[in-house]
Structure formats: C-alpha cells, structure tokens
Amino acid sequence: MDVHIVSVNAGRAEAMKIGARTVTTGIRKGPVERGYVGPLGLAGDVVADVENHGGLDQALYVYSSEDYAWWAGELGGAPEPGTFGENLTLSSFGPGEVRIGDRFKVGPALIEATAPRIPCSVFATRMGEQEWVKRFAVARRPGIYARVVEPGTVRRGDTIRKL
Predict the structure, then answer these.
(1) Over its length of 163 residues, how does the chain's per-residue pLDDT go in tens digits?
(2) Phi/psi of residue 124, each to 5°?
(3) Of the CATH numbers 2.60.34.10, 2.40.33.20, 3.40.50.1820, 2.30.130.40, which one belongs to the domain with range 5-162?
(4) How many CA atoms lie within 13 A of 31 on its CB side?
(5) 3-class DSSP state of 121
(6) Is 0.85 surpassed by the pTM of this model?
(7) Which among 39, 146, 45, 58 is positioned nearest to 102, based on CA atoms?
C-alpha cells in the first residue's frame, strides 16, 4: 500500500463568530506546496488558541483521506483536504489502528502520535453544524495530534512509513 501525503495545509488567523462571542482561529486551512515541520508545528500555520491547541505535544494535526472518504458518504460529498483543520492529510495511516506513541516517517520528518483530536465549538462552527462535536466523536475517526521528533520539510506526495 502506497501511503503518502495528499496535502500539506496551513491556515491564517481569522475572526469567527460563535454564538455571541467572536474568537480568533486558524482552523480554515488550505494547501501549500510544502512546509517545514518543527517542534511547534508547521511553519506559517496559525495556532490562535494556544491554550487548547499547539505546543510540543500537539504540534501537528494529521487526518487521512480514507476517513474523509467515509465522511463523504455522511456529508453528501467529499470534504477538501484541510477542511477539518489538519496540517497533513495522508492517503492513509496504513494498516492497523493508530496508537499513542506510534511513529511515522513523513518524508524526511519523524512524528509521533500523542492524542486523538477532541472536537470543539470552533470545529462545529467551521462545519456549520450545531451537533458536530457529538457527531464527530461518535464517528470515532478523530485523526491524530502529533509531536515532531525529527523536523524536516514535507511536500505533497512524500512517502509515509509507520515505524
């Protein structure tokens, strides 16, 4: 099975209205040609809520095209890479389940799974669905947060290898 990077995604800071409050977020991510991943994440990507996101153990959010394909059936169309706010969209996580501590060689970089994603109100607003947090959690397709063990510049098409 050829496992590779489908998309490298970065976001800019933007204001988002959630109920009566306005927050700054970087959840809307779009493809970039390549990106340097270091201990604090993808260079040029905005992490606006540093209390709940980012840092050494959540440097990257990684999602798979296989899970997007599943969501396509649920949502009536395939979401574009980056829709869920991930920095790296992989073709797959490879065979078997992903567990905390699993390591992946991503092009020249090495990342380690640290936690599943926990959905939030910003994500629900991004998806335009009030019950999204529950729906996403029930689907059990969270993607992973990862720390960067060995930094490097990653590109679309780079090979992924689970170690």
Answers:
(1) 689 999 999 999 999 999 899 999 999 999 999 999 999 999 999 998 888 889 999 999 999 999 999 999 999 999 999 999 999 999 999 989 999 999 999 999 999 999 999 999 999 999 999 999 999 999 999 999 999 999 999 999 999 999 9
(2) -60, -40
(3) 2.40.33.20
(4) 11
(5) helix
(6) yes
(7) 146
